[in-house]
Amino acid sequence: MGRKILFITTDMMRWDSMGYYGDPYARTPNLDSLAAGGIRYDAARNQNPLCMPCRNSLITGQYPRTNGSWNNGIPLPHDVATIANVLHDEAGYRTALIGKAHWEPFSSPKSMESDLGVHNRYGPLRGFDFAKLQAHGSVPFNSHYNIWLRENYPEYVGEYYQLLDMSSGHSQMIIEGGGQTGAVFVKDSKIPRELYQTDWTTDNAIRYIDSLDDEEDWFVWVSYGDPHHAYDPPVAEDYINWKDIAPYDAFGESDAQRMEWLQRKPWHWEQWYTGEKFISFEALEGYSYRDKLTSDQIREIHQKIYTSNKLIDDGIGKMMAHLKDKGMLDDVDIIFTPDHGGMDGAFGTLLIGPSMTDHICRLPMIWKPAQSSNVPASVVDSPVGIIDLAPTFCEIAGVDVPEWMDGKPLPVSNEDGDSQGREYTFTQYESHTPAASIIMNAMFANGIKCVLYERSKTYEGTEGELYDLNEDPGELVNLWEDPSYAAVKADMIETIRRDLLARPMFHNHPIPGALI
Predict the structure, then answer these.
(1) For residue 154, which of 35, 311, 363, 488 sits 20 to 30 Å off, Cα-Cα?
(2) DSSP line for 305-337
(3) 506 assigned to some structural domain
(4) pLDDT tier at 115, thresholds 50, 70, 90
């Protein structure tokens, strides 16, 4: 019998929204405990800030340019091998995914993920023996959770904010306000907690684990869809009044201050805030944050996010307690990470968008090795990424890391990170609309972030962003043209071109009409 793997992910959870990073409003005691007793990665970042590319990098251990999934709506090809294939075929693991997959557009009728729900099947799916899927309340319409809620508790389907309009055959985001402040994507949901998507995911994960023989090795991915928008957790679970939340510093004190910050950056940043041009599919076409997003609305959105995070933390605690009661917790490796964060009001914006800031790229990643492995707790500052998770699962399972993976196993200490030669991480972003084409490649090393813009119809290829996070953690001062950083910038650009852009690129095609 080997070590079992409980892999827990969330969607759009910021690194600084955790209690163990000092957020005074967070209620995350179980994650705080995992961080204290395990390995906390303080320089963890994703390789793309969007859901689909990030999740496809996660299950393949590859950069987006390698596996071809470079934006939402761009599927992972069906013949691409995943970590679930490796663990199942080479290590004999039982493999399951409970919750959100999103390796291909679930708004497309051609999606294998939607097909499972429509035909009442539970796998196989990309190497997973069992898949029971959920995402964001009423989206996707054909997920196992959505069908279960619709068939058994139809009176509560409308308690979710309907995020997508599919009536035209193409997915379109529905942008409406709600709650007490009229905040966009907010809804005061009266759905009972036991029917809410988070508890459904937790309970189904426990039920699946209980279906296995105690001697079986397993890899169970529990993938929560929160705190991603829409912001609609059960209102009865709100534990703090939004009025008691202090104004968010990164939102700024005024429109003038936000414009001052944004005008230091390349031009699409200001357009994202003002909504004057549709600069990316994550930026909400025709919507102006400048005119419509207030400090009070940000505070109410944060209240909903805190509630969502607490429910997730409660679920993690419930799973750990259950494993302990079964006598198997000491032989389970627990790894936790979001796919990405969210702007959540930073620079006056929401969601993700065309950005490489740590609001969306830095991750609160934790690995609590099985107690039987005798790996001590530590805080690791070595740069690590989402692409390192699949190789880590291979190492835990005792199988060789496939040559097709770009990542390598996570270090268990800073000394281990040094021996691996970890010096930097890369993050990529690419988006094209009729109004703008934005291609960015970011490198993080030694507290410096360099974002190189590639040549496109929008940019010449000479633009970029450079931040000294040691002095400017909010990424307010763009040092791209600062002569005192010229040598650092030149070295980082050379590294990006040599170690990332020189890699072969596969550019898969989008599925028409599939936004997410």
Answers:
(1) 311
(2) HHHHHHHHHHHHHHHHHHHHHTT-GGGEEEEEE
(3) no
(4) confident
